[in-house]
Amino acid sequence: MTFISRRDLLKGVAVAPFTAPVARAFQARGSRSTDSLALQPLENLTASEMDILEAIVARLIPTDENGPGAREARAAHYIDRALGSALASSRQAYTAGLAAVDQYARSSRGVQFTALSPADQDALLTDIEKGTAAGFTGSSTAFFNLVLSHTHQGTFGDPHYGGNAHFIGWDLIAYPGVRTMVSGGDQKRLEANDLKPNHKSAYDYDGFTKTSGD
Amino acid sequence: MATRLKDADVVIVGLGAAGGVAALPLAQAGMDVVGLEAGTWLTKRDFAPDELRNNVRGWPQGVQKANQEIPTSRATASAPMAPRPSLHPMQNAVGGTSLHYWAQSWRLNPWDFKVVSETKRRYGASRIPAGSTVEDWPFGLDELEPSYDRVEHEVGVSGQAGNIGGTIDPHGNPFEGPRKRGYPMPPLRGTEFLEKMATAARSLGWHPFPGPAAINSRPYQNRSGCMYHGFCNRGGCHVDAKNSTMVTTIPRAQATGHLKVVQRAHATTIEVDAKGRVTGVNYLTDGVEYFQPAKAVLVAGFTYENVRLLLLSTSKAFPHGLANNRGQVGRHYFSHHQGAGVTALFPFDLKAWYGLPAQGFAVDDWADDNFDHANVDFIGGGNLWVYSDRRPIAAAGMSTFGRAPNWGSAWKAFIKANADRSNTSYIQKTTLPYEDNYLDLDPVVKDPLGYPVCRITGEYKDNERKIAAFTQEKMEQWYREAGAIAVQRAPVGGPMGVSTHAYGGTRMGDNPETNVVDRWGFAHEAPNLGVLGASVMGTSGARNPTLTVQALAWRTAEHLLKDWKRRT
Predict the structure, then answer these.
(1) A41 falls in which pLDDT band (50, 70, 90)?
(2) Span B184-232+337-430+460-494: which CATH code?
(3) Whether B239 and A20 lie within 8 Å, measured CB to CB
(4) ipTM
(5) With an 8 Å Cβ cutoff, is B83 touching chain A?
(6) Residues of chain B contacting residue A16, judged by C-beta atoms under 8 Å apart
(7) A186 to chain B: which residues are within 8 Å by CB?
(8) Which of A155, A174, A180 sits opposite B419 (nearest CB)?
């Protein structure tokens, strides 16, 4: 029994035999989790809230000479989905915080946050990070840190959860990918810069899913 | 009215690292054992390599009992309550936290058993820190060695011995106490970076060695060797190569036909008769009350839960909590000073994506009494541990060492270049018990059933802070020797929050005035009540507690068998 993925089997990749007496393999189905991302219904945030959040995450991890950022990774989509489940306790903080961001833009610059130039958006976000922005209930720094932490989750977390689209986050930091078996040879290849990113979600391996498959 | 169940010989409360081990010798001897476990069985299909679910969200698939009973904490009796974490570090499941722990499996060093007498002998009584209630253990390493040996082989530990029968092997830890034989498996494999660190330590004249782990370095007991996939830290093993009690001692105990595992059993109180002997355990499943009678009870929750369960079990014989007529339950509490870590930035990639925290090199030269303390103003020390462990979300959260902001294009350029270039060491340090550090029941905060949660009152004292500063200096020296271009030190000392390494509260010792359990792990005040877990440990050593907890659990179970007639 090996932990070779179906995708690798099709490619005929040779894998060192492991004498693993385990019940079933964790075979990958291919990168299903990154398909069909064109449609992104809003599950929890309002359309206007989402506009502001999209603009914020695009400044936290911008699209620039180092490639696509949090917008392309769909970090805001991750957050929107998670606010209905694992991050539900943060829903109210987003309602209040996003409104305060927009209000701060209007009071300090006279326009809504999304209408500001990237440089102006950065300046406002810096105020919010430092806690000097007016109009927040409680600490604007806490709201900034909350959004930054969730943006990391949505950019560098498993794509199954709706972010890290097209493995943008993992490619940015050169993470070689979720594997269920890393042999000594694989480690040597990694050390020789010869282990290519495999672009798989944990749930591309059948062993971790509940359904019987396609 | 609780449903009274069929009598058992022994009921174990909690089937984690400790209870799961104790069940085996008892079941093998033919005792009818009931294991009450708040969590459920999980399987390797539940152990996905998913950082969001395991590390960020804290195992939502598990029963959330622990998360609903997170202790409160405060630095001192007059300090305000500290913010409560949202997740408990421990897990409810068959196998408990041994499912997702780092699995470092150390024996304590000889000094850890004799801190008081050895300090007095070598440096004088004045060197025992003021206010500390530390005592020698009632026995030395030599007496626990057979239990360590047994558990290392029953559970399966990989590692490199450093001292077999007094013969030092320089590939292992030259400071460890004598062992009868080597580990059942060789150490986990290294990496280029870990080897570089080992070479640097040797060039400093230190003695690096690969650490011991309850993880298969090769197939063992018909289970797979480690796959090094990088999600071991707070992750369960998808090939059962991590030797949790779920895949080792518990199924073997079940196979005897003498262990009944009761899942989703939420223990509430222990019953006592008029003579002060325990008679069984009350528990709830889905809100329905049951009473499991037994001739002996082994309490095997985590430290906070052991103490809380005793304090909640009041009776005519024990008005202030079970086995607490001398007021010792909750005393002598301390948690490892695990903080005060050191993080380094290197000018090259460490290729650390596919490691595990138990895979690494330790330096014990600055731990315990392994160096002369005549010219320092503390006792004890720290074990320096470098390991290979990295996951994407955590990597993105790395320190920027003052070289970049935390967001924006400059951050993005920094993280692209450096995500695989930092290493954080784990320095476990001697921590002592003190008069004013303790556990009790919170007077205000309750769990959803209305029972008070455990309250921690504790802070690290001078001795701990001095060790921390001393070991940080050594660690920085080690990183610099290996080529680090920047080094950061985390803050030293502070309040004791909720910890994975929580000791004391039901301390073991011969003197019933200062200890809850005797040298065998049974309550001085209730002879058929045993306590398993680090709550019985009176010193921490400078290394992870689990193997010691398991060796003590095995020893307590064996003693119960030998002393059955007198105890029950």
Answers:
(1) confident
(2) 3.30.410
(3) yes
(4) 0.95
(5) no
(6) none
(7) 354
(8) A174
Alpha carbons B412 and B393: distance in angstroms, whole number: 14
H-state helical runs in A61-202: 70-73, 75-82, 91-109, 118-130, 140-156, 168-172, 184-191
State the span(s) of chain B assigned CATH 3.50.50.60: 1-72+88-157+243-335+432-453+501-568
Q: How far apart are CA B281 and CA B290, in angstroms?
A: 8
A114: exposed, middle or buried (Cβ count in 10 Å: 0-12, 13-18, 19+): middle
**Quick one: B1-72+88-157+243-335+432-453+501-568 is in which CATH superfamily?**
FAD/NAD(P)-binding domain (3.50.50.60)
Question: pLDDT digits over B166-204, tens only?
Answer: 999 999 999 999 999 999 999 999 999 999 999 999 999
Which of B227, B230, B408 is facing A62, going by the closest CB pair?
B408
Give the single-character DSSP code of A85: T
Spell out which residues of chain A touch residue B393, defining contact as CB-CB under 8 Å: 152-153, 156-157
Strand B342-345 with B422-424, pairing: antiparallel
Neighbours of B375 (CB within 10 A): 6
Q: Is A154 on the interface with B (CB under 8 A)?
A: no
DSSP B225-292: PP---S--TT---TTS-B--TTTTHHHHHHHTT-EEEETT-EEEEEEE-TTS-EEEEEEEETTEEEEE
Q: Is the pLDDT of residue A122 over 60?
A: yes
Interface touch B224/A20, C-beta < 8 Å: yes
Find chain B residues with C-beta within 8 A of A59's C-beta: 407-408
Both tokens of B558, joined, read 């064996």
Distance CA B83, CA B90 (A): 18
* Token representation of residue B48: 């996905």
Nearest to B494 by CA among B462, B534, B455: B462
Which one of A83, A89, A130, A156 makes the best mutation probe of the B interface by having the most chain B beta carbons within 10 Å? A156
CB B420 within 8 A of CB B395: yes
User: Where does chain B hold its CATH 3.30.410 domain(s)?
Assistant: 184-232+337-430+460-494
Which element (helix H / strand E) includes B337?
none
Q: By the CB < 8 Å criterion, does B28 face chain A? A: no
Q: Counting one residue from A and one from B, how many pairs have CB atoms under 8 Å apart?
A: 140
Distance of residue A214 Cα from the nearest chain B Cα, in angstroms: 18
A158-183 residue pLDDT tens: 999 999 999 999 999 999 999 999 99
